[in-house]
Amino acid sequence: MSDKEEKKGWFRRLQDGLKRSSSAISTGITDIFTKRKLDDDVLEELEELLITSDLGVSTAARITTNIAKTRYDKEIEPDEIRQALADEVTAILAPVAQPFILMEDRKPHVVLVVGVNGSGKTTTIGKLAHQFRQTGKKVVLAAGDTFRAAAIEQLQIWGERTGCDVVTTKVGGDAAGLAYSAIEKAKADNADLLLIDTAGRLQNKSDLMAELEKVIRVIQKLDADAPHSCLLVLDATTGQNALNQTEIFGKVCEVTGLVMTKLDGTARGGVLVAIADKFGLPVHAIGVGEGVENLQPFEASDFARALSGTNNN
């Protein structure tokens, strides 16, 4: 398959995955803009549509203001609004669309993967491990979610599938101690990348947040600069709660980048635009399905077109 065909295939999967999010926006635009001029009432309806699509109040207000600048009091077709929306969303997302880059001068590049229960952290780690193994990198996995036997088993399965060593401890074991052992092993093995899973810390659980801080302190005893990356995995189905999670985790572990999963299971995909607009954190990848190929580097224009229901290539 050529690169062009592969990109087209991914865009089709992205369109399918975002169908629930885009259909609400696209249908809403058709309802609002059929044979009407762009006046204050219409702008208010558009703004409300964007807010209910989880783009956030301030983001929705700015987008509608920008769209109105050159079109106010003109009759406008729904397709033109969809394209204008895609352009505005692309402008917001383009600065944060940054692929995850392996730091070649770190041996290993230590990545802490955080997020709440059920966000897809363990699966994301497995998929990232697969992608880096495909490029010939040596990857070690650490099953730092010691609270759940299922999480440890799931990571071991990914380890077998991808040919990666997995460092584990008993259920209920010390996560900080496990992280320490994992770095020692990754250094001894001259690994390129160490991916450390963590328990699904709910942002209102101060004891779990304290444990995450402890994990980071212990890691830094072996490498003062580690973790070199802290990836926050967000579940798109949580909508506006994802904004709160981004804020809380950012305070605890200096989040360096985001991965958003489960975009195919929700009508709330617009929340990614709100998060990008508010926090400006790099968005490394998005997931629109269970398969390994359904976690892909984030591309602003593709996402904006899929979200707004704009089909031009």
Structure in words:
- It is a single chain.
- This protein has 313 residues and is an alpha/beta fold.
- It folds into two domains: 3-96, SRP54, nucleotide-binding domain (Four Helix Bundle (Hemerythrin (Met), subunit A), Up-down Bundle), CATH 1.20.120; 109-298, P-loop containing nucleotide triphosphate hydrolases (Rossmann fold).
- It is 51% helix and 12% strand.
- The protein has helices spanning 3-17, 19-33, 40-52, 57-68, 78-93, 121-134, 149-162, 175-188, 206-222, 241-253, 271-279, 300-308; strands at residues 109-114, 139-142, 165-167, 193-196, 229-235, 257-261, 283-287, 295-297.
- Strand 7 (283-287) and strand 8 (295-297) form a beta hairpin.
- Helix 10 (241-253) runs parallel beside helix 11.
- The longest helix is centred in the last third of the chain and has 17 residues, at 206-222.
- The relative contact order is 0.19.
